[in-house]
Amino acid sequence: MVRNVALVDGEIGAYGVVYPDAPGCTAMGATLDEALRNAGEALAEWIADEIAAGREPAPPRSADEARRDPEVAQALTEGAMLTVVPLVMDYGRPTRINVSLDAGLLAAIDEAAAERKLTRSAFLSTAAREKITAGG
Question: What Rg do the C-alpha atoms of the chain give, in angstroms?
Answer without folding.
Answer: 18
